[in-house]
Amino acid sequence: xxxxxxxxxxxxxxxxxxxxxxxxxxxxxxxxxxxxxxxxxxxxxxxxxxxxxxxxxxxxxxxxxxxxxxxxxxxxxxxxxxxxxxxxxxxxxxxxxxxxxxxxxxxxxxxxxxxxxxxxxxxxxxxxxxxxxxxxxxxxxxxxxxxxxxxxxxxxxxxxxxxxxxxxxxxxxxxxxxxxxxx
Length: 183
What we know:
Elements (H helix, E strand, L loop, with lengths): L1 E8 L7 E2 L4 E10 L2 E9 L5 E2 L1 H24 L11 E7 L3 H12 L10 E8 L5 H7 L4 E6 L4 H11 L4 E6 L10
Parallel strand pairs: 1-3, 6-7, 6-9, 7-8
Antiparallel strand pairs: 2-5, 3-4
């Protein structure tokens, strides 16, 4: 059976959700100003209805602390820009070109921001058996490629740390497709 999946903007009134006969629960990305702040996965009887009040209770239990923290940040004038901090997005991979291509595509689809110029994408090829990963990255001039011949995720991550140019490093698995508000 399938879950009803949707995005919920928490600064808008919450809807009543009606599950279809094939839905046995809900999977909701919880957003505040379009930025994901939580995820709600709740099994429910097929065809059931979840009122806005019931949904509000579930949302509160899923991300109350994050909502309070975000409200406090707002009360002090917001977060502000990243200033001069830079970010390296490091993706360690081994022989998983299809997933890596989707991951890189998702990063390229991120909305353009002033901060976007301050992040690099680094792919660490961890002892792949062929050149497929190298060839994929070579076709993307905005992605940097390095190879780590010692197999193992620890070696690949250590290589990423050594090669990163950013002050901060965000590691992504090679099968992840980031959300539009991830950065």
